[in-house]
Amino acid sequence: MLNHTSPMELRLVLNVPNTMTAVRVVLSGIIFFLLLKSEFFIGGILLFLASLTDGVDGLVARRLGQATLGGALFDLMADEVLFMPNLIAAVHMGLFSSADNLMPLNPYPYAVSALAGGVTVVSGVGIYLWKRRKRQMEFPSPTMVVKLTFWFWLAPLISAVLGVGPDWLLATLMYLSIIWTGLAFYSYLKKGAYVFTD
Predict the structure, then answer these.
(1) Max Cα separation, the chain?
(2) For 90-121, how does the pLDDT look when each residue is reduced to its tens digit (9 = 90+)?
(3) Cα of 35 vs its chain's centroid, Å
(4) Which of 58, 62, 60, 66 is nearest to 4 (CA)?
(5) With contact defined as beta carbons under 8 Å apart, do 74 and 18 qualify?
(6) Rounded CA gap, 192 and 189, in Å?
(7) For 16-197, CATH number?
(8) Which residues, 6+ apart, have CB-to-CB distance to 19 below 8 Å?
């Protein structure tokens, strides 16, 4: 069944892609609980499966003609709900300690840069919604660099939670995440700075 809502409409409708996004939000809470209970293998597998829904829900929305602005913003927020609390839990549980000798102040350069990116996304959505109450405003579509950022943030987190690979792999993923976050900030703020300034 096709959804005939406007792509610029903010209303959330109960459809297949938004249901997939909602499942990601629910899984986030379960994963957070598992990490705090030291159930790292199950938590890591669920984290990986939940992250896969990020790409699939958008693809399904486009295929079914159910892509809307409300769904896209919900997807962005669901990404941060999945990532940020679980990153904080992983840091709290010391899951990045295997890379201590390979990164100064481990894991804070990675964690702080990724969390700053997440806070920027959440702030941008909040400011956009606030400004949109009074005037029509287009939400800047993410560049390809920005679309890949979530995966650069998740790769070290999933690796740390599952404890897979050698120490240098985790450190490399963390360094790549830091670099990619900087590129994403530049790319997205160059295109969408009006959300914060207009």
Answers:
(1) 55
(2) 999 999 999 999 999 999 999 999 999 999 98
(3) 18
(4) 66
(5) yes
(6) 5
(7) 1.20.120.1760
(8) none
Reported pTM: 0.89
- Which of 179, 161, 187 lies closest to 51, judged by CA? 161
pLDDT per position as a tens digit, 48-58: 999 998 888 88
Task: Report the 3 state secondary structure along 132-193.
Answer: HCCCCCCCCCCCHHHHHHHHHHHHHHHHHHHCCCCHHHHHHHHHHHHHHHHHHHHHHHHHHC
Token couple for 180: 């990619």
How many CB atoms are closer than 10 A to CB 103?
A: 19
Cβ atoms 24, 150 nearer than 8 A: no
CA angle 109, 48, 12 (to 5 degrees): 95
**Mind giving me the DSSP string for 19-82?**
HHHHHHHHHHHHHHHHHHTT-HHHHHHHHHHHHHHHHHHHHHHHHTT---HHHHHHHHHHHHHH
